[in-house]
Amino acid sequence: MKLNSNLKTHNSKLVVGILCAIGAAVCYGTNPLGALNLYAEGMNTPSVLFYRFGLAWVIIAAVMAVKALSHRESLRVTGRELRTLLTLGLLFIGSSLTLYLSFHYMPAGVASTILFTYPVMTAAIMVLFFRERLRWGMVVALLLSLAGVLLLYWGDTGGTLSMLGVVLVLVSALTYALYIIVVDKSPLQMSSFKINFFVLFCCAVGMALFALLSGQPLMLPPTPRAWLWVGWLAVVPAIMALVMMVYAAKYLGSTPTAILGALEPTTAVLIGIFLFGEPFGPRLLVGILLILAAVTLVVLTNSRKK
């Protein structure tokens, strides 16, 4: 009976992990939607990210205040936990800042497809430093998803890419891969909301310091429409994506969470098609189908894990 109970618990966590990984990827894939609209409103990159992180932190802080008043969870952390949380904050600052800067040098859809190199980086780091064994299903899923992303990339651009833009996106991918691994391997025993209370605070402070050091002053969102997009960035690709990503990494593991992130560039392409009128052809269709096949394979591979 106890074995069956443990198996049911494991399967439940697996399902939650898969759903959270998919949700996090889709939410994070909407970053260009808010960022490009705010750039069109005249805001600079540090300002966009500062208000994104700042508003998200205010919302998370309100949730944590309710939990603290009801004695469900306190904000106390040990020195070791604080160091891990600061590490996560710095990694997410690096990933977000380099991604948003890359939007100035290449189309956001292209940047989103290149960003998907982070599953490759995640898998390589796990194999090299944590001796994780890649199952054949994961290898095939990785190859399928990379082939899909290449098709999305070729279908979405026709010119030469900016080398600086490519480097920025690759740095973003590496720091995001490290973020996933730290969440997966860290001994943090706290809710996703508590983790992100500290991570988002670190990100907001970091963006304010970057604005000061780079000589780009923080700008208030100039219009109600701009505030709406700030709210979108704070809630969807920040709070929702980060909260779900923590559960995905904990319940599913670093590598499958990263591979399911293939839905992120797919989301970016679909946003371009339906909201910005970008062309849709056979290459894009095949690319999306390959990525969905990879996602399905990840789900099947993990459902058979002990």
Descriptive overview:
The chain is mostly helical and 306 residues long. It has a domain at 28-136 and 160-251. Helix content is 80%, strand content 0%. It has 13 helices and no strands. Helix 1 crosses helix 11 (254-260) and helix 8 packs across helix 11 (254-260). The longest helix is centred in the C-terminal third of the chain and has 29 residues, at 224-252. The model has no long low-confidence stretch (mean pLDDT 86).
What is the typical, i.e. mean, pLDDT?
86
Rg from alpha-carbon coordinates: 19 Å
Gap between N and C termini? 17 Å
Q: Which structural category fits the helices and strands?
A: mainly alpha
The number of distinct helices, counting runs of at least 4 residues, comes to: 13
Strand content: under 5%
Fraction of residues in H or I helices = over 70%
- Which H/E pattern describes the elements? HHHHHHHHHHHHH
Coarse shape: globular
Low-confidence stretches: none
What is the β-strand count? 0
Largest sheet: none
Break the fold down into its secondary structure elements and pairings:
Layout: H1 2-28, H2 31-40, H3 45-69, H4 79-102, H5 108-115, H6 118-130, H7 136-156, H8 163-185, H9 192-214, H10 224-252, H11 254-260, H12 263-276, H13 282-303
Keywords:
single chain; 13 helices; 306 residues; mainly alpha
